[in-house]
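Revision sheet: structure tokens.
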Amino acid sequence: MCAIAQYALLWGIIIGYTIIASTSMIAVKKSNCFHKNGHNASCKTSEAMFMVMYGLFQVVLSQLPSMHKLAVTSGVAAIMSFAYSGIGLSLSVAKLVSNGVIKGSIAGNSLYSGESSLTTKLWNSFQALGNIGIAYAFSPVLLEIQDTLRSHPPENKVMKRATLYGIVVTSVFYTSLGCVGYAAFGSKTPGNILTGFGFYEPFWLVDIGNACIVIHLLGAYQVFAQPLFAAIEDRVSSKWPSNFLLEARYEVKLLFSTQTIWKVTLFSLIMRTTVVLLTTLVAILVPFFNSVVGLLGAIAFWPLTIYFPVAMHKSQTNVKKGSMKWFLLQCLVLASLSVSVIAAIGSLVGITKSLKHSKPFQAKY
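Predicted:
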């Protein structure tokens, strides 16, 4: 059950990354168009074209042999993450200061203003819980990352420290950006602060922020895709160990050099390319940023971040049934399950509504 949830989530996340990356590429094009032709100009373009471009890049990157070869890619992705988060936060602070007033409120949209109905507010609130959940969905790749660490110091100590620092930094950045962004834009806050065009100027800084997102997601895609590739390859090789598709290996070398970069099997080439193309197709058919991200967060949060780790902890530390600790852990599990269920419902409602008006291959941005 854990494996099914994990690999389904990994695939779902790279679908979401394809949507987000294409949205940022579109935002760069629109930003330059608005700067040149004015904020009311028609700058429509097809998101499908950008998803295909991103998918083609991933076809090449997917031929990297394993997680162990992603150190440089992950480092660049981390730098890009800090860069676009900082840009988004800085622009939001500047917008808030220029407004001279806090636009957001604890109650959100007024039910009497015509901006929102009670039902819409409810579904959007549920969906938002899923969006928050996806911010902490590193659990599916935690063990995969741990597997790439050296044995000294012990992997569990390194991961505890890395997890603590990661959660603290993530919480500070995302909470700050969410609160400041809402204070700056109120009910008009875009789902993605850098692609929703709350900011038109300076256009070059918006472009840099979105470029950082795309570069980050080029590497982040592989962090989540490589364990999925490895699982498929391990399963196939255990069933058909002597298949010629698995045995035939081809060397990839640098131009004008005899140095081998990596070796690839025919099966790996076909399978990884197929997964990336299928992922891109699904992203084109369901290109709804907030709803898809919310659904992924809902699916990931409870089973992989809460239920299985808590169950393993209770077994490992022999928590007595009926004790106070056991009771508190059960409350955590049930409360988290409730959050995941309502987040999934809210996101599915959002996807259903969006599908009614969806025209995947037409220019709409």
